[in-house]
Amino acid sequence: MTDVIGLVGIGDAFAVPRGKNITFPERGDSQMTRITTRHDELRPPHTCLALGRFILQDAARHFLMSNSSSNETDLWRGLSPSARQALAMRDYNSGDLAEKLLTGRAEAREVLSGVIPAELSIPGVEVFHRRVFQQRYRGYFSEFAREGEGMSGKIGMWPKQWATALMQAGTSKGFHIHPPAIPADTTPEAWFQRLFVQEPENYSLRPYALEQWDMMFFIHGQAEMFLIDERAGMPRKKMRFIIEGDDMPGPNNVGVVIPSGVAHALRCVGSKDLIMVYGTSTTFVPENEGRIAHGVETAHAPAEWEAYFNS
Known about the structure:
- The protein has 2 domains: 6-67, no CATH class; 97-303, Sandwich (Jelly Rolls), CATH 2.60.120.
- Strand 7 and strand 8 form a beta hairpin.
- It has helices at 53-67, 72-75, 81-86, 97-103, 150-155, 188-198, 303-309; strands spanning 6-7, 14-15, 22-26, 33-37, 106-107, 126-129, 132-135, 139-142, 161-167, 172-177, 214-220, 222-229, 238-244, 254-258, 262-269, 274-280, 290-291.
- Strands 5-13-12-15-10-17 form a 6-stranded mixed sheet.
- The protein is an alpha+beta fold.
């Protein structure tokens, strides 16, 4: 019987605290499974992850939790009454994806096409992963799109115009929206039902040449993207998530396709400027650039300056 927490070494057995249930990761190729060891039971490490620090961390956490006080008032008794009354605790519960999409806590990797549940996605919006290749001692390399391949090839959209934009740290732009092209012999509601509900994979139906779809890529900085489906007869779904630029290689490096009729806005988050490249299915036409609640784009001078200047 032992109370010792320890790992002797590779090839040896290890012991766990008496009377405790300890869980730790077991070696797996594609996913982590879990096994449970009861007190005084010895297991050879070849059944466990070779890195013993996971075992020690789990055992120590259980030991400390079982011996810590459950009285939260005692934890903060060293603070003044006013500080204790003002004290707030951060909620580290990430919540489900539906909640995160509305509160700004979702990340691009969680809303990838084929990953996000259909009931949460906006029809026609595509979020697809991009690989950023690190070139040690030089920088990095990444691709935007290849004609006829990847997401562009799948949906049959190849931009007619490419552009770049820079947003300075702390700034925002939007909401922008582009008018959908509706055939004369049908209603908007019936047309969207056909495009996105009845025949969602019949990409040849989409009138890319008649309406502006955007395909966006982010090179530098971090963006928070806002999307709202404003198409007639479609559920008014909303998405809000974080995208990371190529200078931050990882699962949040994505491209985004935005259909006409979906309002979109961007916020530059963090301390870096945001640099983006985007292609459009049509060339730019000012009349097709609708704006909703876009006052955030206007630089406001101090009220005193405005009053003096206009006096």
